[in-house]
Amino acid sequence: MASEKSPGAKLLELFVIFAMVLGVALLLLRKWEGRSENKQRRVTVNRILAIEAGLAKYMIDSGGLLPTAEQGLAALLREPASGPRPVSWRGPYVDGEEALEDAWGRDFQYFCPGKPIKGHTDIHQPYSLSSYGADGAEGGEAMDRDICSWKRTTMIP
Fold first, then answer.
1. Count of domains for the chain
2. Which of 60, 64, 72, 102 could be a cystine partner for 44, CB 3.0 to 4.6 Å?
3. Is residue 4 in some structural domain?
4. pTM flag (> 0.90)
5. CATH of the domain at 130
6. Is the four-CA dihedral 145, 122, 120, 151 of positive or negative sign?
């Protein structure tokens, strides 16, 4: 004679199965969410590298000049209307306006001349390029940490 389960036992089994499925789904969601955030950091790092390549080409065409802070990175898309103007502008040097934004849709921070070289107050990077990360505020940790062209370790996702 087969024993039948009470309705309460069946309900308990269904609840346990539902809880296990929900737990697995939440774990997968957290893992996917982390990958999504890492993807945004990777996209931002790749855009910084593309801008750096564009700045190098701009320098070649301009006789060694970089866009000024006032001209900004827009000079990689359109020839600057104000000086100093490149000797021979052959842009655009990046692929569209989106290339000048981080993966969170914010403009990159561009300074020319750049930040001081570590250990010096009078010697500066030619330029500094950065993103404030996921939170859009300077500093931060984990996914919120800044991504800086002059600190290559910040460019590791």
1. 1
2. 102
3. no
4. no
5. 3.30.700.10
6. positive
